[in-house]
Amino acid sequence: MALKKQIENEKGVRTTYHRIDGIAMENGLRVTVKSYTDESYRQQEKEVLAQMEQQEKIKEELQLEMEKTGADYQKEKVIALTEQNNALGFPVMPDLAVFTRTFCYPLDKGADFSYQAIYSRLKQEAVFAHAEDK
Q1: Contact residues for 23 (Cβ-Cβ < 8 A; gap 6+)
Q2: What is the 3-state secondary structure (H, E, C) of 11-73?
Q3: Which of 18, 63, 65, 77 could in theory staple to 3 by disulfide, Cβ–Cβ 3.0 to 4.6 A?
Q4: Residues 23 and 51 grouped into a single domain
Q5: How far apart, in whole angstroms, are the C-alpha atoms of residue 62 and residue 82?
Q6: Are both 90 and 114 inside the same structural domain?
Q7: Cα(119)–Cα(20) distance, integer angstroms
Q8: Long-range contacts: 59-67, Cβ < 8 Å, 24+?
C-alpha cells in the first residue's frame, strides 16, 4: 500500500508515490514516510531487495552443502551454487526516495495500528490531503 499524490517542493522537485518506510513506538507513534518521483523508483528498490533475498537463500544452501562430508557432499552442487552467488554480484540496497518525512502521533492503546489505518491517518496531514490509496 502507498499514497499517490503529486507534491512539489519549493525547488520544483516533484514526487508522486509515498510509502511508509518505518513505524516505531518512541514517545508515541513515529511514522517515517518516503516519497519517490514515481512508483518505478520504489520498484527498483524492490528488485534489488529480491536479489539480496535470493542471494541469502543461495548462501544458506551453500553453507549447508559445505557442512556435509563423504558421499553426502556434492561438489557439483557447491560449484553451481557458488556460480549463482557470484552471478548476483554484490547488490546494495539503494535509497531512491527523494524525501523522507516523519510524523508523530500520540499513542492510543485502543487505536488501530494497521498499515491501512496509519495511511488513513497520514491522509489527514496537510501534505497528503486528498491523496489516493495506491
Answers
A1: 29, 30, 31, 32, 113, 118
A2: CCCEEEEEEEEEEEECCCEEEEEEEECCHHHHHHHHHHHHHHHHHHHHHHHHHHHHCCCHHHC
A3: 18
A4: no
A5: 7
A6: no
A7: 8
A8: 59/85
pTM over 0.85: no
Looking at the fold, whether 89 and 105 belong to one and the same domain comes out as no
Give pLDDT, residue 52: 95
Q: Among candidates 119, 130, 126, 106, which has minimal Cα distance to 18? A: 119
Rg (CA), the chain: 21
pLDDT of the residue at 15:
97
The parts of the chain modelled with pLDDT lower than 50 are none
Q: What is the pLDDT of residues 17-52, one digit of tens each?
A: 999 999 998 888 999 999 999 999 999 999 999 999
pLDDT of residue 8: 92
Q: Distance (Å, rounded) from C-alpha 44 to C-alpha 93? A: 10
